[in-house]
Write a structure and sequence with these properties.
The chain is of the alpha+beta class. It has two domains: about 5-80; about 90-305, Jelly Rolls. The chain is about 30% helix and about 25% strand. Strands 1, 3, 4, 6, 11, 12, 13 and 15 form an eight-stranded antiparallel β-sheet that branches. The protein has a seven-stranded antiparallel β-sheet with strand order 2-5-14-7-8-9-10. Residues about 1-10 and about 15-30 have low confidence and may be disordered. The chain binds calcium ion. Keywords: Disulfide bond, Signal.
Amino acid sequence: MSNNTGAARNSFRSKLLCLNFTAAVAFLNTRRMMEYLLLLIILVTVAVADPCKEQLDRIEGKIDSLLSGLQEIHTCSCNTPQTSCLENSEALVAYYSFNDDDTLNDDSGNGRNGVASGNVQRYSGGPQGLPGAGGALHFQGSGKVDVDAFRNFQWGSKFSVSVWFRRTGGFGNYQGIIGNGYHTSGSWEVRMGRENNGQMLGGGVVTSDNPVTWNYVNLVAEKNTWHHVVMTYNGSDTSFYLDNQKQAGAHDCCHGDIIPKNTPLTIGKAGVGHGAEYFVGFIDEVRLYSCALSADEVDTLYGAFINS
Ligand SMILES: [Ca+2]
Protein backbone atom coordinates (compact mmCIF):
# COMPACT_ATOMS: atom_id res chain seq x y z
CA MET A 1 0.00 0.00 0.00
CA SER A 2 1.52 3.42 -0.91
CA ASN A 3 2.07 6.44 1.40
CA ASN A 4 -0.63 8.27 -0.56
CA THR A 5 -3.10 5.63 0.51
CA GLY A 6 -2.01 6.01 4.18
CA ALA A 7 -2.47 9.81 4.01
CA ALA A 8 -5.84 9.33 2.44
CA ARG A 9 -6.86 7.03 5.30
CA ASN A 10 -5.71 9.61 7.89
CA SER A 11 -7.69 12.27 6.07
CA PHE A 12 -10.63 9.91 5.99
CA ARG A 13 -10.44 9.31 9.77
CA SER A 14 -10.10 13.04 10.44
CA LYS A 15 -13.19 13.81 8.43
CA LEU A 16 -15.11 11.03 10.16
CA LEU A 17 -14.36 12.69 13.53
CA CYS A 18 -15.52 16.02 12.18
CA LEU A 19 -18.60 14.35 10.79
CA ASN A 20 -19.42 12.81 14.17
CA PHE A 21 -19.20 16.20 15.86
CA THR A 22 -21.35 17.90 13.28
CA ALA A 23 -23.88 15.12 13.33
CA ALA A 24 -24.18 15.36 17.13
CA VAL A 25 -25.26 18.99 17.02
CA ALA A 26 -27.57 18.61 14.07
CA PHE A 27 -31.13 17.35 14.25
CA LEU A 28 -30.93 13.58 14.11
CA ASN A 29 -34.63 13.09 13.53
CA THR A 30 -34.97 14.96 10.30
CA ARG A 31 -35.59 13.08 7.13
CA ARG A 32 -32.61 14.60 5.36
CA MET A 33 -30.32 13.74 8.26
CA MET A 34 -31.42 10.12 8.20
CA GLU A 35 -30.78 9.97 4.47
CA TYR A 36 -27.27 11.36 4.96
CA LEU A 37 -26.50 8.89 7.76
CA LEU A 38 -27.69 6.00 5.61
CA LEU A 39 -25.36 7.20 2.84
CA LEU A 40 -22.48 7.41 5.31
CA ILE A 41 -23.01 3.82 6.44
CA ILE A 42 -22.96 2.65 2.82
CA LEU A 43 -19.75 4.59 2.10
CA VAL A 44 -17.94 3.25 5.16
CA THR A 45 -19.02 -0.28 4.27
CA VAL A 46 -17.61 0.13 0.76
CA ALA A 47 -14.36 1.60 2.12
CA VAL A 48 -13.81 -1.37 4.43
CA ALA A 49 -14.57 -3.86 1.70
CA ASP A 50 -12.31 -2.29 -0.94
CA PRO A 51 -9.71 0.07 0.59
CA CYS A 52 -7.75 0.82 -2.58
CA LYS A 53 -6.59 4.41 -3.25
CA GLU A 54 -8.90 5.04 -6.17
CA GLN A 55 -11.87 3.91 -4.15
CA LEU A 56 -10.83 6.05 -1.15
CA ASP A 57 -10.40 9.13 -3.37
CA ARG A 58 -13.88 8.64 -4.74
CA ILE A 59 -15.31 8.14 -1.26
CA GLU A 60 -13.49 11.24 0.03
CA GLY A 61 -15.24 13.30 -2.62
CA LYS A 62 -18.62 11.97 -1.54
CA ILE A 63 -17.81 12.55 2.14
CA ASP A 64 -16.90 16.17 1.35
CA SER A 65 -20.37 16.59 -0.14
CA LEU A 66 -21.90 14.79 2.82
CA LEU A 67 -20.11 17.05 5.34
CA SER A 68 -21.27 20.09 3.41
CA GLY A 69 -24.86 18.84 3.58
CA LEU A 70 -24.66 18.17 7.30
CA GLN A 71 -23.23 21.64 7.89
CA GLU A 72 -26.16 23.12 5.98
CA ILE A 73 -28.61 21.24 8.18
CA HIS A 74 -26.73 22.31 11.34
CA THR A 75 -26.67 25.96 10.25
CA CYS A 76 -30.34 25.87 9.33
CA SER A 77 -31.25 24.22 12.65
CA CYS A 78 -29.33 26.81 14.66
CA ASN A 79 -30.56 29.85 12.77
CA THR A 80 -34.21 28.95 12.26
CA PRO A 81 -36.36 29.98 15.27
CA GLN A 82 -38.71 27.38 16.69
CA THR A 83 -42.08 28.85 15.80
CA SER A 84 -44.47 26.33 17.26
CA CYS A 85 -46.30 27.87 20.22
CA LEU A 86 -48.68 25.00 20.86
CA GLU A 87 -45.97 22.33 21.01
CA ASN A 88 -43.66 24.30 23.31
CA SER A 89 -44.52 22.92 26.75
CA GLU A 90 -42.56 25.71 28.46
CA ALA A 91 -44.83 28.29 26.82
CA LEU A 92 -47.96 26.85 28.48
CA VAL A 93 -48.19 29.26 31.41
CA ALA A 94 -51.33 27.74 32.92
CA TYR A 95 -54.06 25.29 31.95
CA TYR A 96 -57.39 24.77 33.69
CA SER A 97 -59.33 21.81 32.30
CA PHE A 98 -61.79 21.71 35.23
CA ASN A 99 -61.98 17.97 34.64
CA ASP A 100 -61.04 16.42 37.98
CA ASP A 101 -61.86 16.62 41.66
CA ASP A 102 -58.96 19.05 42.01
CA THR A 103 -60.94 21.21 39.61
CA LEU A 104 -59.18 24.51 40.19
CA ASN A 105 -55.64 23.16 40.02
CA ASP A 106 -53.33 24.28 37.25
CA ASP A 107 -53.05 21.29 34.90
CA SER A 108 -49.90 22.70 33.26
CA GLY A 109 -47.90 21.64 36.30
CA ASN A 110 -46.83 25.20 37.06
CA GLY A 111 -48.79 25.28 40.32
CA ARG A 112 -50.83 28.38 39.53
CA ASN A 113 -53.93 27.01 41.24
CA GLY A 114 -57.20 28.87 41.50
CA VAL A 115 -59.45 29.64 44.48
CA ALA A 116 -63.21 29.88 44.09
CA SER A 117 -65.48 32.29 45.93
CA GLY A 118 -69.27 32.65 45.74
CA ASN A 119 -71.44 30.37 43.70
CA VAL A 120 -69.12 28.34 41.46
CA GLN A 121 -69.78 24.68 40.83
CA ARG A 122 -67.99 22.02 38.90
CA TYR A 123 -70.14 20.65 36.13
CA SER A 124 -69.06 17.09 35.48
CA GLY A 125 -70.19 16.98 31.87
CA GLY A 126 -73.26 15.93 29.97
CA PRO A 127 -75.58 17.59 27.51
CA GLN A 128 -74.82 21.11 28.70
CA GLY A 129 -71.05 20.64 28.87
CA LEU A 130 -68.52 21.28 26.14
CA PRO A 131 -68.62 18.01 24.16
CA GLY A 132 -65.56 15.87 24.71
CA ALA A 133 -63.92 18.27 27.15
CA GLY A 134 -64.77 16.59 30.43
CA GLY A 135 -65.92 18.78 33.31
CA ALA A 136 -66.45 22.53 33.17
CA LEU A 137 -67.17 25.31 35.65
CA HIS A 138 -70.72 26.53 36.12
CA PHE A 139 -71.10 30.17 37.18
CA GLN A 140 -74.45 31.47 38.37
CA GLY A 141 -73.84 35.20 38.51
CA SER A 142 -72.30 35.51 41.96
CA GLY A 143 -69.10 33.49 41.93
CA LYS A 144 -65.60 33.67 40.48
CA VAL A 145 -62.19 32.00 40.50
CA ASP A 146 -59.06 33.98 41.35
CA VAL A 147 -55.45 32.93 40.72
CA ASP A 148 -53.16 35.02 42.90
CA ALA A 149 -50.05 33.55 41.27
CA PHE A 150 -50.63 36.01 38.43
CA ARG A 151 -50.17 39.10 40.60
CA ASN A 152 -47.35 41.19 39.07
CA PHE A 153 -46.92 38.53 36.40
CA GLN A 154 -44.51 39.55 33.67
CA TRP A 155 -46.60 38.91 30.56
CA GLY A 156 -43.90 40.19 28.23
CA SER A 157 -44.57 40.83 24.57
CA LYS A 158 -45.85 37.37 23.60
CA PHE A 159 -49.18 36.13 24.89
CA SER A 160 -52.21 33.97 24.09
CA VAL A 161 -55.37 33.06 25.96
CA SER A 162 -57.72 30.28 24.83
CA VAL A 163 -61.10 29.74 26.50
CA TRP A 164 -64.45 28.06 25.83
CA PHE A 165 -67.64 29.54 27.26
CA ARG A 166 -71.42 29.36 27.00
CA ARG A 167 -73.43 32.28 28.36
CA THR A 168 -76.85 31.23 29.61
CA GLY A 169 -78.27 34.22 31.50
CA GLY A 170 -77.97 37.76 32.83
CA PHE A 171 -78.22 39.13 29.33
CA GLY A 172 -78.87 42.66 30.60
CA ASN A 173 -75.44 42.92 32.21
CA TYR A 174 -71.80 43.09 31.26
CA GLN A 175 -70.00 39.87 32.24
CA GLY A 176 -66.32 39.13 32.57
CA ILE A 177 -65.11 35.82 31.19
CA ILE A 178 -61.40 35.97 31.96
CA GLY A 179 -58.77 38.63 32.62
CA ASN A 180 -56.69 40.18 35.36
CA GLY A 181 -58.49 43.49 35.67
CA TYR A 182 -61.44 45.55 34.45
CA HIS A 183 -60.94 47.84 31.45
CA THR A 184 -57.89 49.91 32.50
CA SER A 185 -57.14 48.02 35.72
CA GLY A 186 -55.68 44.87 34.20
CA SER A 187 -53.16 43.64 31.65
CA TRP A 188 -55.74 42.01 29.35
CA GLU A 189 -59.30 40.67 29.45
CA VAL A 190 -62.06 38.97 27.49
CA ARG A 191 -65.52 40.22 28.46
CA MET A 192 -69.11 40.25 27.26
CA GLY A 193 -71.59 43.15 27.17
CA ARG A 194 -75.35 43.64 27.39
CA GLU A 195 -75.59 44.99 23.83
CA ASN A 196 -77.22 42.90 21.12
CA ASN A 197 -79.32 41.05 23.72
CA GLY A 198 -76.28 40.21 25.79
CA GLN A 199 -74.33 38.70 22.95
CA MET A 200 -71.65 41.39 22.60
CA LEU A 201 -68.09 40.15 23.03
CA GLY A 202 -64.77 41.98 23.14
CA GLY A 203 -61.34 42.16 24.65
CA GLY A 204 -57.80 43.37 24.32
CA VAL A 205 -54.40 43.88 25.92
CA VAL A 206 -52.96 46.85 27.82
CA THR A 207 -49.60 48.27 26.78
CA SER A 208 -47.86 51.62 27.22
CA ASP A 209 -49.53 52.92 24.05
CA ASN A 210 -52.94 51.33 24.72
CA PRO A 211 -54.42 51.82 28.22
CA VAL A 212 -57.78 50.05 27.71
CA THR A 213 -58.79 46.51 26.86
CA TRP A 214 -61.47 47.03 24.20
CA ASN A 215 -59.25 46.58 21.14
CA TYR A 216 -61.94 44.24 19.88
CA VAL A 217 -65.56 45.19 20.55
CA ASN A 218 -69.10 44.52 19.32
CA LEU A 219 -68.32 40.98 18.23
CA VAL A 220 -71.32 38.65 18.45
CA ALA A 221 -71.34 35.42 20.46
CA GLU A 222 -74.81 33.88 20.36
CA LYS A 223 -76.35 33.08 23.73
CA ASN A 224 -76.75 29.52 25.03
CA THR A 225 -74.08 28.32 22.61
CA TRP A 226 -70.52 27.10 23.23
CA HIS A 227 -67.94 29.48 21.78
CA HIS A 228 -64.18 29.37 21.51
CA VAL A 229 -62.12 32.54 21.91
CA VAL A 230 -58.40 32.87 21.34
CA MET A 231 -56.73 36.24 21.78
CA THR A 232 -53.05 36.53 20.87
CA TYR A 233 -50.40 39.26 21.04
CA ASN A 234 -46.94 39.12 19.46
CA GLY A 235 -45.49 42.46 20.53
CA SER A 236 -46.94 44.47 17.66
CA ASP A 237 -50.15 42.78 16.56
CA THR A 238 -53.21 41.52 18.42
CA SER A 239 -55.47 38.84 16.98
CA PHE A 240 -58.89 37.78 18.22
CA TYR A 241 -60.43 34.52 17.01
CA LEU A 242 -64.08 33.70 17.69
CA ASP A 243 -65.00 30.12 16.81
CA ASN A 244 -61.87 29.78 14.66
CA GLN A 245 -62.65 32.96 12.68
CA LYS A 246 -60.23 35.88 12.91
CA GLN A 247 -62.16 39.01 13.85
CA ALA A 248 -61.79 42.61 12.70
CA GLY A 249 -60.55 45.07 15.31
CA ALA A 250 -57.74 47.35 16.41
CA HIS A 251 -55.15 44.67 15.77
CA ASP A 252 -52.30 47.18 15.56
CA CYS A 253 -53.26 48.93 18.78
CA CYS A 254 -50.24 47.94 20.75
CA HIS A 255 -46.49 47.65 20.86
CA GLY A 256 -44.02 46.35 23.39
CA ASP A 257 -44.69 44.51 26.63
CA ILE A 258 -48.10 43.95 28.16
CA ILE A 259 -48.24 46.01 31.37
CA PRO A 260 -48.00 43.87 34.54
CA LYS A 261 -50.53 44.58 37.29
CA ASN A 262 -50.71 43.59 40.95
CA THR A 263 -54.02 41.81 40.39
CA PRO A 264 -55.06 38.15 40.28
CA LEU A 265 -56.22 36.34 37.19
CA THR A 266 -60.02 36.21 37.46
CA ILE A 267 -62.26 33.67 35.72
CA GLY A 268 -66.03 34.13 35.69
CA LYS A 269 -66.17 37.84 36.56
CA ALA A 270 -64.66 41.15 35.48
CA GLY A 271 -61.41 41.42 37.41
CA VAL A 272 -60.18 43.99 39.89
CA GLY A 273 -61.65 47.42 39.11
CA HIS A 274 -65.31 46.46 39.03
CA GLY A 275 -67.43 45.05 41.83
CA ALA A 276 -69.85 43.13 39.65
CA GLU A 277 -70.03 41.86 36.06
CA TYR A 278 -70.23 38.22 37.12
CA PHE A 279 -70.58 35.57 34.44
CA VAL A 280 -73.68 33.39 34.08
CA GLY A 281 -73.05 30.12 32.28
CA PHE A 282 -70.23 27.68 31.66
CA ILE A 283 -66.47 28.21 31.17
CA ASP A 284 -64.04 25.46 30.23
CA GLU A 285 -60.54 24.58 28.95
CA VAL A 286 -58.70 27.78 29.86
CA ARG A 287 -55.16 27.97 28.50
CA LEU A 288 -52.60 30.77 28.83
CA TYR A 289 -49.42 30.85 26.74
CA SER A 290 -46.29 33.00 26.72
CA CYS A 291 -46.30 32.96 22.93
CA ALA A 292 -48.61 33.99 20.12
CA LEU A 293 -50.62 31.08 18.70
CA SER A 294 -50.78 30.96 14.92
CA ALA A 295 -54.04 30.65 12.97
CA ASP A 296 -53.23 26.99 12.34
CA GLU A 297 -52.71 26.40 16.06
CA VAL A 298 -56.00 28.14 16.85
CA ASP A 299 -57.59 25.77 14.35
CA THR A 300 -56.05 22.83 16.22
CA LEU A 301 -57.38 24.00 19.59
CA TYR A 302 -60.82 24.68 18.10
CA GLY A 303 -60.95 21.32 16.33
CA ALA A 304 -60.01 19.44 19.51
CA PHE A 305 -63.57 19.82 20.80
CA ILE A 306 -65.82 21.11 18.07
CA ASN A 307 -65.60 17.76 16.28
CA SER A 308 -66.08 15.68 19.41
CA1 LIG B 1 -62.93 20.52 30.70
